[in-house]
Design a protein that fits this description.
elongated; 65 residues
């Protein structure tokens, strides 16, 4: 995956987490669902980022592509 795609996954996860937290504070339904889906997006994007770092030679070169 490209860096922009990983960043988009991370941002979508962050938006879902914030939305789920707001719904949880207001005690509205579907808050747990949004939090779970948001954390899944965050975890997948973090996993892709770690895999990309290990595929490249050094820690600085993974930002090139």
């Amino acid at each position: 995956m490209k860096n922009t795609q990983i960043l988009v996954l991370f941002v979508i996860g962050a938006v879902l987490i914030v939305g789920g937290a707001l719904l949880k504070i207001m005690d509205l339904p579907f808050a747990d669902f949004l939090l779970i889906i948001g954390m899944t997006f965050e975890g997948v994007s973090f996993l892709f980022l770690i895999l990309k770092m290990f595929q490249k030679k050094g820690p600085d070169s993974f930002m090139d592509s």
